[in-house]
Predict the structure.
Amino acid sequence: MGQIEVPVVRNILQANERLAASNRRRFQEAGIYVINLMSSPGAGKTSLLEKTIDGLAGQLRMAVIEGDIQSSHDAERIRTKGVQAVQINTEGGCHLDANMIQIAVESLELENLDVLIIENVGNLVCPAEFDLGEHDKVMILSVTEGDDKPLKYPLMFQLSSVLVINKVDLLPYIHCDVQLIRERTRQLNGNQEIFEVSCTSGSGMDLWLEWLKKKVQGVKDQLSRQGEA
Amino acid sequence: MGQIEVPVVRNILQANERLAASNRRRFQEAGIYVINLMSSPGAGKTSLLEKTIDGLAGQLRMAVIEGDIQSSHDAERIRTKGVQAVQINTEGGCHLDANMIQIAVESLELENLDVLIIENVGNLVCPAEFDLGEHDKVMILSVTEGDDKPLKYPLMFQLSSVLVINKVDLLPYIHCDVQLIRERTRQLNGNQEIFEVSCTSGSGMDLWLEWLKKKVQGVKDQLSRQGEA
């Protein structure tokens, strides 16, 4: 079984890398900043998106690609916010890949956008391996999942530029040491930005939004420098 | 990419089915009841195991197989309870398969056990597809994950005999409608047993333990009937 599986998985990953590079060029030409948002089921990806849309309203033009195994529940939540949302249904698949993004992007006018957030399938394992062409992988860990998660799902922590620790409003009621999450994450990835937020109370959202706006501006600055050169 | 992937995945699943059938015969011959325990990361699989070990102490002989991507953190937690625990590290793999279980079982004396619980990799998607030879798939959903999970991860709900709704002690602090989880689950799987528990407070554990003991007795009864026949 292993002898069959390994080379095929490698072919799939290589094919994915090529399509991801093509997506990345497309995003850079359009001057749009792109995030691949990942977490366990129920850690708060859609809630962070909703709060982010509210926080950026009138400042940045945003669109969302929603990845789900089935249903359009999350895309409907996003559309009620007045933001364009494209739904990808993986029909059983456990992660998004670059090909799915290439197809989904066809229905967006990228040149009229500043930021695109791709909400991946809820899964702390498989999505980490598939580059979508994003600028940054952003992962969410909710404190209710426990402080041992960096030890148990290290790849996601290693590859993400940002860790958003969510549901901090629940800390008084559970056993979870946020300092320990930070230490364990640092051992895997010394460069990760870490935000502590509550999508319910809104605490910590200001720092996250400030970081996001800087990132969008960075892509715009790069594009205008290229235009001048 | 799809043309390469589909037939290979089918071969892997067929090979897995054969090994799962072999495991199932081995478990039945030994008269041991086996659970495949699945959930998202941090929903409380290891906590339910710890509470179950405490609740069955002196009544049933139990062993645990711990599936993790890496680390032996959970197996160490279980061993401090005085129960035999075998660690499987999948080294990046997102689910356990029947072959891994066949190998892990070699280091257990099944004839001296009443119940074996296999804790799968924390993932609400991929593990559902791989039969390990268990009697029952038991899934945990923590209320902090939200009441939309049956809509978004239906296969796990369809295939599990039991749904354990965990962390009910946190219900006063979050937005989660347990009745809605029950209704959405019933639409996918009318035969699922549902327990509401808190591994922190211990509430609801009595009904879960009672159900588990009946299941173990059922396997023993079947074995003795076969012996008489």
Summary: Chain B has one domain: 31-217. Chain B touches chain A at residues 1, 4-5, 8, 11-12, 15-16, 40-43, 68-71, 73-74, 92, 94, 99, 121-126, 142, 144-146, 148-149, 151-155, 167, 169-170, 173-175, 200 (CB under 8 Å).
